[in-house]
Structure formats: structure tokens, C-alpha cells
Amino acid sequence: STDRIASMADTRDIIRITEDTEDDFEQVVGGGGGDEGVRLVKESAKSRKGRGFESEQDRDDTMEFDAVGIDDGDTAGPQRSVEGWILFVRNLHEETTEDDLMDKFNEYGEVKSLHLNLNRRTGYIKGYALVEFEHYKEASTAQNKLNGADLNGQRMQVDWAFTRGPSGGGGGGRKSRRQRDTKPQQRSERSRSR
Amino acid sequence: MATKDSGADAFYLRYYIGHRGIFGHEFLEFEFRPDGKLRYANNSNYKNDTMIRKEAYVSPAVMAELRRIVTESEIMQEDDQQWPMPDRVGRQELEIVFNSEHISFTTSKIGSLAEITGTKDPDGLRTFYYLVQDLKCLVFSLIGLHFKIRPI
After folding, report:
1. What is the pTM of this model?
2. How far apart are CA B104 and CA A2, in angstroms?
3. Does B4 fall in a domain?
4. B80 within some domain
5. What residues does each domain of chain A span?
6. CATH for the stretch A77-162
7. Using CA atoms, how far apart are residues B57 and A71, in angstroms rounded to an integer?
8. DSSP state string for B43-109
9. Is B5 a domain residue?
10. Which end of chain B has a smaller Cβ tally under 10 Å, C or N?
């Protein structure tokens, strides 16, 4: 398997992210769904490079991941975060300031959180931001009105940051049923066909 | 058999860093899957914290920005052959599938830019170093805001 990698010496007690055991219904959405999707994507690559391929080791993972409202089998509509709704803003001019963004977004509601991350190499901003509103209406309206709006000479792209379910790489998918030898995960993650 | 994706648009990214410190084994790992699922795990024995494991689906917009960041870094043109090998002190892994290329790089921990200057491939390591910083910033913002935690 291509996703087994070498580990540090004496690392048996380290638990790693790896293939979990999903239940019988695995949805393959544009080749991207679940563990099967990851494996397919890796196999679809035409070239490989790096020492990480040289040695392999089983990665064992039997633990679950916490999530907010996740739904592996369903829609890719926006997902609420723990305390509000988060928008993802792109194509920001490198000299954009937090005030620039607050001015734009505060028009639609109170901005509860704003992350405008720096480019660690240049010291300018990296070009994206995360903006949080408490209420769906505020975020949704801001997204509608500000997507494509000009800021410092560039058109902002404003979208939701999180979705309820997977987004396919391209085109539709189909459901495949696989028999697993291992026990299914405790947390039910039933896929549904589309 | 599942339908095989053309692969041309497929994207996958995983980063791992782990080390032994005075607080025992500590590691951080995150993974962006082709379907948009972001998985994050952080294990630190500092103050006996339990492991943090979070996951969320990020939107296609976030995945597009991730691709842009990777493209801009030019990491896909690099090679880890001349980089310091992972050692007992620590290990980093960066695995990316992008534009039908699959890279899987491993190296030791990099404490600071000063450490890079004496190596055989300082430019490549610098590229790696800055990309990792940028990826961590993005992931910490996503996970931190979504779950309202301080992810590290």
C-alpha cells in the first residue's frame, strides 16, 4: 500500500491518522470519497518522488475524530461551526488590512471572528481570510453581496468555509458496496446514494 | 469496483511532524482529502493533555486556495533526496498528490531558518519550511474557528 510510511524508532505507541474502518456503504464521489477515494487518488498519479515511498509501515488507527454536524453521505451545503457561520475569502490584495475587511463585512452583521493570515515568507498577507458571523442570514447575505466585490483593486471571492458533506473532484459518483473484514466504526456514517 | 477518477483534478495533502521532547511523544498531523475532508490530530503529553482529533469538510473554495498555496510554493518541483534524514529527535512528512504527481517527502525537524543554511539543499528546505508554516496557519485557523479551540 502506498500510504504506509516509515516511522520513528520506538514509535509503536504513537497513534496516527490513517485509514479508519468505514461501514459497508462507501460512496465514491468523483473518485474522492473516503479511504477508497484517497487510495484511488494516490494510485492515479503518474509520477512519484520522495523518500517517503521507500519504507512502509502499517499505520493503526482505531480512534474517532470529533466533528460538528458532519455527514459523509449527504449534501455539500454550508455547515455551521460551533459558534457561528464562517466564510472563506480569497484573492485579497497583499496589503489588505483587517480594518478593510471589517469595514466590508460589518455591514451585514457583527463580525465575531476574523483571521487574516500572513505569508510567513514575505510578511504580507497570504491572500485569504476567514470571517465569522453568529447568524446564518448575516453570513449568507454577506456571501451573496461581497462575492465578486472589489477591495483594493481586486475582486474578492467569498464562499462558505465548511460544508456538511463531501465535494467531489469532478462529476458524479456511484455507490459501491464493499464487504469489510474489520468491524465498522462505532459512529454511524451511512452513505446515501445520489 | 469503484469508478476511477481521471486523476487530473485530484488533490490530496498530508503533513506530519512528531518528536520526542521532555514531555514525551508529541505529534501533529493534518490531512486534506480529495473530497474536502480535513482531518486534524494533535497529541501532546504536556500537562497530560489528551489527544485532539477533529475533522470537518472544507468547501471547494478552501481546497482551491490550498492548491494555490501549493502551486505558489513550487514544492512539487523539489526533492527530499538531499534533505536531512528523520532522526530520533524528530520527523516531518509531507505528502501531496497534485496534477497527477505524487510527492512524499521526509526530513528531520527544522527548528529555525538558521539550521537550513548549512544543509545540502537550503533552497529546497526553505521552500518546505515556509510552505509548512503557511499550511499550519491555514489549518489552525480552520480548526480553531470551527471548533473554537486553540488547536495547539
Report:
1. 0.80
2. 10
3. no
4. yes
5. 77-162
6. 3.30.70.330
7. 9
8. E--GGGPPPEEEEEEEPHHHHHHHHHHHHHHTGGG---TTSPPP-SSEEEEEEEEETTEEEEEEE--
9. no
10. N
Distance from CA of A84 to the nearest CA of B (A): 8
Q: What is the CATH number of the domain that holds B93?
A: 3.30.1560.10
Nearest to A45 among B9, B54, B101 (CB): B101
SS3 for B19? Answer: strand
Per-residue pLDDT tens digits for B101-145: 999 999 999 988 999 998 999 999 999 999 999 999 999 999 999
Does the distance separating the beta carbons of A8 and B57 come in below 8 Å?
no
Tell me if B27 is assigned to some domain.
Answer: yes
Q: Chain A partners of B141 at a C-beta cutoff of 8 Å?
A: 115, 117, 130
Does residue B56 belong to the interface with chain A, where contact is any CB pair within 8 Å? yes
Check pLDDT > 80 for residue A182. no
Query: pLDDT digit string (tens) for A41-55?
Result: 999 999 999 999 986
Contact map slice: A 25-54 vs B, CB within 8 A: 26, 28-34, 36-38, 40-42, 44-53
Instruction: Name the A residues in 48-87 with CB < 8 Å from any B CB.
Output: 48-53, 63-68, 70, 72, 76, 78-79, 81-83, 86
Write out the residue range of the structural domain in which residue B111 sits.
11-147
Q: How many domains does chain B have?
A: 1
Q: Using 50, 70 and 90 to split pLDDT, how confident is the model at A180?
A: very low
